[in-house]
Amino acid sequence: MALNNNNQEAAKSREQFKKEQTVKEGTKRNRRIRVRLIPIWLRIIIVAVLISLSAIAGAAFGYGVVGDGDAKDIFKKSTWTHIKDLVENE
């Protein structure tokens, strides 16, 4: 029974807190200014770099480990023209 009373008191205090907050917000506008640690433009650049790195790592793993080739060959143009020819001829 005591636990139920504590829950009721907590609910009442939450309701009172919400009412007090709406009264405070109505009289004066207290808005928090959000300061971003990393700007949005920098986040976009970071995501683009991470996507590029993961694509390079995936190609190196796929060509070097799964394909039994040399992982450094993914940076050669001849490798990509060979892959392109294989895909187009099938």
UniProtKB/TrEMBL annotation:
InterPro entries linked: RNApol_su_b/EpuA
Bias type Basic and acidic residues, positions: 11-27
A GO CC term attached to the entry: DNA-directed RNA polymerase complex
Keywords: DNA-directed RNA polymerase, Membrane, Transcription, Transmembrane, Transmembrane helix
Stretches that traverse the bilayer: 40-66
Polar residues composition-biased segments: 1-10
Region Disordered: start-end pairs: 1-27
Keyword Transferase: no
One Pfam family this sequence matches: EpuA
Protein name: DNA-directed RNA polymerase subunit beta
